[in-house]
Amino acid sequence: MATKRCYYEVLSLSKSADADSIKVSYRKLAMQYHPDRNVGNADAEVLFKEAAEAYEVLRDPEKRQRYDRYGHAGMDGMSMPDFGNADSVMDLFGDLFGGVFGGAGKGKGRRGPQAGNDFHLGIEIDLIDAMKGVEKKVKIPRDVTCKSCSGNGCKPGSAPVKCKRCDGKGVVIQGNGFFRIQQTCSGCGGKGATIPNPCTNCRGAGLIQEHEELVLNIPPGVDDGVNIRHTGSGEASRNGGPPGDLYVQIKVKKHSFFLRNGADLHCEVPITFSQAALGGEIEIPSLDGKKIKFKLPAGIQSGEEAKVPGKGMPSLRGTRTGDLVLHVRLETPKNLTKRQEELLRELSELDHKHISPHRKSFLEKLKSLFVPSEADSSKE
Questions:
Q1: Average pLDDT of the segment spanning 353-376
Q2: What is the pLDDT of residues 225-248, one digit of tens each?
Q3: 135-153: per-residue pLDDT in tens?
Q4: Which of 330, 284, 274, 323 is nearest to 303 (CA)?
Q5: Which pLDDT score is estimated for 267?
Q6: Which residues, listed in sequence order, are joined to residue 121 by a DSSP beta bridge?
Q7: pLDDT average, residue stretch 361-372
Q8: Strand 324-330 relative to strand 259-261, pairing
Q9: Tens digits of per-residue pLDDT, 23-63?
Q10: Rounded to two decimals, what is the model's pTM?
Q11: Considering only CA atoms, which of 110, 92, 107 is closest in space to residue 51?
């Protein structure tokens, strides 16, 4: 699969480009690669769609912010048109140009019912909640269908009237030949109808804003940055379509003791010299607060890792559980008792008599670094 180009590169812009520069650059490319000007040119069609996709992201402040932070991966879960579909590209083109080509928008005019806007929400949770899963109650402001007018914006007992300016099409077309200009009807705002007697509750909008409490189920194993989609929990449609979706982005707080890496948990475990040399059983805490007994192998070195299987994080799909990885750190005592000092000196004397294989190898390498002096050579 071909790697997507940077959206700024596609539009020949710097990352500091303002909204006007983005619009001007896209307009230039869209005119250059428009299918009506490049009949049968597959490369031009690809560039036309690529420019439309870049413009769709960079013109939207929220999408642009996510793209600047996460790149193309940040677009996962965002509401995006299908740029493999010619109609989606032409709709975007028509929105910008007002339909400067007869083919823009495929002559569809007034659109049918569309889904409501998606709503995006960020939630911060603790690492233990990410391990076990958690329910979170949130209040979100949502546009919901006005109950007084059932969403049509009209005062009870009245109805919308077909727009005379566009004859109910939602658009007006000016000019003829190659350059026909299709514009949204100013009389009805593209709806194809006007409301002479607006609803007093919603003032003709068909929607009112309410704060709704939702219970969000966050599953075990969720990771930082994951987007959870709640279908139908977004804003209501303005023209009878389905509601949008709610996207919840999870932020997992850093833990003071455990560090997460995928499904594994890591922690640092300080041990004494005698524990390192002799081994033995130690107690370590787990993320859920329970104590884990772990047997250290004799002779473990500072900096080595030891694993406690199955004591990490569950996977989001529940197929496996990670490990708890212990990073052993040897603590050297600073204030010794007289007895401790005596014992260590005895041990030091034994160390000189019984050299370990690693130390022996080190000493042999050290000797090879010293070259005999001329005085030493003359004595031989």
A1: 55
A2: 888 888 888 887 776 778 888 889
A3: 999 888 878 888 888 888 8
A4: 330
A5: 94
A6: 248
A7: 55
A8: unpaired
A9: 889 888 888 888 777 777 888 888 988 988 889 899 888 88
A10: 0.53
A11: 92
Instruction: Say which residue the tokens 């052993």 belong to.
Output: 328
Comparing CA positions, the residue from 91, 53, 85, 88 lying closest to residue 72 is 53
What is the secondary structure of 4-73 as a DSSP string? PPPHHHHTT--TT--HHHHHHHHHHHHHHH-TTTSTT-HHHHHHHHHHHHHHHHHTSHHHHHHHHHHGGG
**Tokens, residue 147:** 């109950």
Q: For residue 45, what are its two tokens?
A: 């069609």
Long-range CB pairs of 13-16, under 8 A, 24+ apart, other chains included: 13/58, 15/68
Domains in the chain: ranges and CATH: 1-108 (1.10.287.110), 116-160+195-253 (2.60.260.20), 259-330 (2.60.260.20), 338-379 (no CATH)
d(CA 91, CA 380): 96
Kindly list the distances between the CA atom of residue 184 and the CA atoms of 52, 98, 110, in Å, as whole numbers in the listed order: 20, 7, 9
pLDDT band at 9 (very low <50, low <70, confident <90, very high): very high
Nearest-angstrom CA–CA distance, 186 and 165: 8
Amino acid at the residue 15 = K
**Summary mean pLDDT of the chain:** 80
Query: CA–CA separation, 255 vs 259, rounded Å?
Result: 7
Per-residue tokens: 151: 């969403």
Give backbone dihedrals phi and psi of 293, rounded to 5 degrees, phi first: -90, 130
CB 138 within 8 A of CB 128: no
The tens digit of pLDDT for each residue in 260-297 reads 999 999 999 999 888 888 888 999 988 988 899 999 99
Q: Tell me the pLDDT tens digit for each residue of 310-356.
A: 999 998 877 889 999 999 998 888 888 888 778 878 877 776 665 55
- State the Cα–Cα distance between residues 198 and 205, nearest whole angstrom: 8
DSSP string spanning 253-299?
PPPSS-EEETTEEEEEEEE-HHHHHH-EEEEEE-TTS-EEEEEEPTT
Numbers of helices and strands, H then E, in the chain:
10, 15
